[in-house]
Amino acid sequence: MFSRLARPSNIKSTLVVLRKFSASAQNQYKVSVLGASGGIGQPLSLLLKENPLISQLALYDIVHTPGVAADLSHIETKAQVKGYVGSDQLLDCVKDSDVVVIPAGVPRKPGMTRDDLFNTNASIVRDLTDACAQACPQAMICIISNPVNSTVPIASEVFKSHGVYDPNRIFGVTTLDVVRANTFVGEARGIDPAGVNVPVIGGHSGVTIIPLLSQCTPPVSFPAEDRKKMTVRIQNAGTEVVEAKAGAGSATLSMAYAGARFTKSMLEALAGKEGVIECAYVRSNETDAKYFATPIQLGKNGIEKNLGIGKLIEYEVGVLKAAMEELQANIKKGEDFVAK
Ligand SMILES: NC(=O)c1ccc[n+]([C@@H]2O[C@H](COP(=O)([O-])OP(=O)(O)OC[C@H]3O[C@@H](n4cnc5c(N)ncnc54)[C@H](O)[C@@H]3O)[C@@H](O)[C@H]2O)c1
């Protein structure tokens, strides 16, 4: 007689649910994942399929996306999943995207630095962002592909070449550095990592990763030697995973988590939530480096406000100084690549 939801005893709660749904239904976003069949791309797409702010999830790769999309499309959430494969379908995939997340490209093997990936990944990111500049110039571009220190300048130069560059909309995803720092500090201090926040500034490779333990919430104190050990562990955490995987790649599951966290924050900011803050590697005037990661307040137009590096203690000033040469060289390498 009554439908399952409309049982008399349930009518009030049903109305509440419907009201909530119609409020959130105004905020429906298209998110594209480029490199969606990979070690990061698949679990990232899975996590995004669960995000209620996403109405369309467009998955692009040079292989396997029809299968990945068919598989994910059976999950009982509202995001419509569509797979696109091969460069002929790239423009269609990214067209009208609100957010594009890019984990395409080769990962490290033991003994490699992130910069060793440049030769392969630079052209992949150039070509993918070229399509974005044409088909979704207003989208928030979130770049995971390494070396992030160079791929973000590459994307920026590509957008400039199309005359559609907005520095507030291009982000290098460094969330994994923050996630690792929170986890390691939580473990070391016996506190739930979910309640820890360590800002991580600088870039996303070795010495350019600068965790600001002095700005951790809740405040934690470290003897000098422990502070140094913790800093070095956070800087080399990616290599810990690369070595443990012994040739089978780099961080994929934790990166998928971090990428989904960053995308969620981005979408919430687009939907009007205030006070959304994530560290990200962006065009910056905070230091002598043109691109630099700092805590960023996100908003409807991307970067709402760069919250800057804050007050560093002497040890962190030294870590920052040690980062600058490599970071600036990485940035120049990316810019020169597009100029050529
Ligand atoms: N930002 C970070 O914190 C972070 C962390 C871990 C890994 N990474 C980087 O993410 C990237 C991907 O890592 P992974 O482990 O998923 O690698 P993977 O090899 O498992 O997957 C990469 C995917 O990219 C696809 N691909 C290759 N060329 C492409 C193109 N032209 N267009 C679209 N897709 C293309 C491949 O087919 C593959 O499915 C690497 O560059 C890695 O270094 C970044």
TrEMBL record:
Q: Which GO terms describe its biological process?
A: malate metabolic process; tricarboxylic acid cycle
Fetch the CDD domains from UniProt.
Answer: MDH_glyoxysomal_mitochondrial
One GO cellular component term: mitochondrion
Q: What class of enzyme is it?
A: oxidoreductase
**What Enzyme Commission number does this protein have?**
1.1.1.37
UniProt keyword terms in alphabetical order: NAD, Oxidoreductase, Tricarboxylic acid cycle
A GO term for molecular function: L-malate dehydrogenase (NAD+) activity
Q: Does the keyword Lipid biosynthesis apply?
A: no
**Alphabetical list of PROSITE patterns matching this protein:** MDH
Tell me which Pfam families the record gives: Ldh_1_C (PF02866), Ldh_1_N (PF00056)
Q: Which reaction does it catalyse?
A: (S)-malate + NAD(+) = oxaloacetate + NADH + H(+)
Task: Indicate whether Nucleus appears among the record's keywords.
Answer: no
The record describes its quaternary structure and partners as:
Homodimer.
Say which family it is in. Answer: Belongs to the LDH/MDH superfamily. MDH type 1 family.
Q: Know the name of this protein?
A: Malate dehydrogenase
